Amino acid sequence: FIDWLGAYLKKLFEREPAEPRQETAQPFLTGTSVANVLVVVLVTLTLAVLGVVLLRALNRDKRRAGAEGVQVSTVDASTLAGDAHHALSRPPEGWAHLADELAARGAYREAVRSLYLALLSRLHRDGAILYDETLSNWDYLYQFRGRAEWKAPFRELTRRFDFAWYGNLPVGVDGYREFRALTEPLLAAPSRPEVAGA
Predict the structure, then answer these.
(1) Distance (Å, rounded) from C-alpha 185 to C-alpha 178?
(2) Which backbone phi and psi does 5 adopt, to 5 degrees?
(3) Dihedral of alpha carbons 62, 65, 68, 70, sign
(4) Hey, where are the domains in the chain?
(5) What's the mean pLDDT when you consider all of the chain?
């Protein structure tokens, strides 16, 4: 019985000789190869886009760094005379005078705007900022190159102006007087200290 069982089990577990396999031609584009190619293309495109963004950011930083060394020159006033909203269309004193006239008529919000334009005009003429209509008020603060002790008041004036003008917050006589008091030191003297003996 044991011999018979051994022979039976041996026969049961014996493998029949495999038939010779015929090589079949595999299709060139299988799902796996298409997926691999797609991944490579997507990674390449992602790296290319990141490279372009990085290069643009570096070029922008170089332009900003180069602009800091540029001498500021004022725009010809006759060119700007037709644009009453341009900060450089009047000297700082002209904007401050207009602000006082507007305040005397009770137009305090417009008076605050005129004082802020006087401030931008003064800072541009003194080389503390480079006035450009395409820049925001906060861009001027970012590029500020005037006296270090004036940056905090300039920030506060910018904040107050933005709330009053763009936020449409009402401005009363007290608000105008506070704004006027904050702008006075910045409007009164040049933003760069004078060299002794010059």
Answers:
(1) 12
(2) -60, -40
(3) negative
(4) 89-188
(5) 76
Residue 45 — very low, low, confident or very high, per pLDDT cuts 50/70/90?
A: very high
Q: No. of H helices and E strands in the chain? A: 8, 0
Helix axes 151-165, 108-125, angle to 10 degrees: 140
Give dist(CA 131, CA 67) in Å, integer: 12
DSSP reduced 3-state for 126? coil
Nearest to 120 by CA among 165, 175, 172, 82: 165
Confidence (pTM): 0.55
The secondary element (H helix, E strand) that includes residue 34 is helix 31-68
φ/ψ region of 171 (left if φ > 0, alpha if ψ in -120 to 50, else beta) reads beta
Q: What's the pLDDT tens digit per position in 13-37?
A: 776 665 666 666 555 666 677 777 8
- Residues 6 or more apart whose CB falls under 8 angstroms from that of 128 comprise 144, 145, 146, 147, 150, 191, 192
Measured between alpha carbons, how far apart are the two ends of the chain, in Å? 125
Which amino acid makes up residue 29? L
